[in-house]
């Protein structure tokens, strides 16, 4: 485990885990089942999503509203990772004569309201540009561990949070807005631009990991945990796991090799200029 105590900065984390869900979600397991059934039946899914939600949530325990009173270890962890990202991005923006605005990170269970509508666990950790907030249900990592058969450790989870902070940086730098305008003008460019954005966010996560080198936060060899996490969420790996086949034309995040490569680029260089994933 990384030595997170060496990081003194803290980010803005809001804990909503004790609140009732804004709307039901099917969960990661339910989503995988849904995709599998859709593939096997050539798109003719006979299980309505509301029934699938019941299947995947009927055994869940009701959240004890007192369970998350005060600040627990995961909230401290998330705040620490976010704080270290904020430190790094503040320095990067200062060099560019820009002002960095810190994002918020919301911890939740199942579903919660966001500036982009309902934030649902089934889509995994994600960033909403409308309210400049990252939404994270950390039980996502438990599901991912169970499905992959290997534990998703603290460094891998920190990579995921840093990737989402990378999207926030893209928003502040105008990259998300420019991509959206391009997609509006040319719908055919949507997948390529999406891949470029995701790979750049991976590179930005690499910049974050690089910024911790002098602090000796990560133990020798732990950076490979982040790389393994990047590989695990490659489009080819996910498609092969869910459908048994790989369809590059439908990719939106990039292959496992690409994701590891761009994370490594940021980690080894420590320079923003090394993260131009669009050319």
From TrEMBL:
<keyword id="KW-0812">Transmembrane</keyword>
<keyword id="KW-1133">Transmembrane helix</keyword>
<dbReference type="GO" id="GO:0016020">
    <property type="term" value="C:membrane"/>
</dbReference>
<protein>
    <recommendedName>
        <fullName>Metalloprotease</fullName>
    </recommendedName>
</protein>
<dbReference type="InterPro" id="IPR007343">
    <property type="entry name" value="Uncharacterised_pept_Zn_put"/>
</dbReference>
<keyword id="KW-0472">Membrane</keyword>
<dbReference type="Pfam" id="PF04228">
    <property type="entry name" value="Zn_peptidase"/>
</dbReference>
<feature type="transmembrane region" description="Helical">
    <location>
        <begin position="20"/>
        <end position="40"/>
    </location>
</feature>
